[in-house]
Design a protein that fits this description.
Largest sheet: none
Number of strands: 0
Shape: elongated
Length: about 250
């Protein structure tokens, strides 16, 4: 077999192998992005000229996301935001449009505290899509209603509040369990803090004394235990007052 033919066969084989590897790599990338972004993948493909352009866009979002300092909320911050959200929901009864606007602002504030840039709505959506793609459509729909809140019906505003709440809860709890596990693994178990200095009680940012609450609960449990014991003894020794105690 001529040498040139052997070289040609080798070149063709290498080219075919390279093409196969490229196709396999592209398919793996597509499946990975589809799994990570879910419906956002299909939406991006529909907006771009080709699936490859959409994949480049989503890969760029991932790259940007890795450079962000995304962090979970502390327990006290979660409690604070939960209270703020409860107040927003209460306001909805009398002022639905204003409540929806506040819900949007609260959500943006929560994003910022988690480490997400908030310079613009479109960038917010792109950044959220990497870890919160499952609730992203709720954010889009709620934001659209919020933008036209003065002309939206009460039912539309109610739907927006429900959608905002879905995104809010996703952002509120995401990463919290991992953070607490990380603290316990490194010897920072916040559920069993050292009470060495008895002159200081633990209070949250609102001055709430959790030690006092636990002490009151123990006292209540103790009274309940005594009451149940008394009732048990009484039922074991029934009185016969109707016949004079005889």
């Amino acid at each position: 077999m001529p040498t040139w033919l052997i070289v040609l066969i080798v070149v063709v084989a290498v080219a075919v192998l390279g093409a196969v590897i490229w196709l396999v790599t592209q398919e793996m990338q597509r499946k990975r992005l589809q799994q990570r972004f879910g419906p956002e993948y299909d939406r991006t493909v529909a907006e771009k000229d080709s699936p490859r352009a959409a994949q480049r866009e989503l890969a760029e979002r991932e790259r940007r996301h890795k450079e962000l300092d995304i962090r979970p909320l502390s327990a006290s911050a979660r409690e604070r935001y939960a209270r703020e959200w409860a107040q927003v929901q209460e306001k909805f009864v009398d002022q639905p449009a204003e409540a929806v606007a506040e819900a949007d602002q609260t959500l943006v504030s929560l994003m910022a505290e988690r480490g997400y840039p908030t310079e613009g709505y479109e960038q917010q959506v792109a950044d959220l899509s990497v870890r919160h793609a499952k609730t992203l459509e709720h954010y889009r729909a709620a934001h659209a209603t919020q933008q036209k809140r003065d002309g939206a019906s009460t039912e539309d505003l109610r739907d927006a509040m429900v959608r905002y709440r879905t995104v809010f809860e996703d952002l509120l709890t995401d990463g919290a369990d991992d953070d607490e596990h990380h603290d316990r693994r490194n010897g920072h178990d916040h559920s069993s803090l050292d009470h060495g200095n008895q002159d200081h009680t633990k209070q949250d940012h609102n001055g709430h004394d959790h030690d006092r609450d636990r002490a009151e609960q123990r006292a209540t449990d103790g009274r309940d235990t005594d009451r149940h014991e008394t009732e048990r003894q009484a039922s074991a020794n029934p009185r016969t007052e109707w016949n004079g105690g005889r």
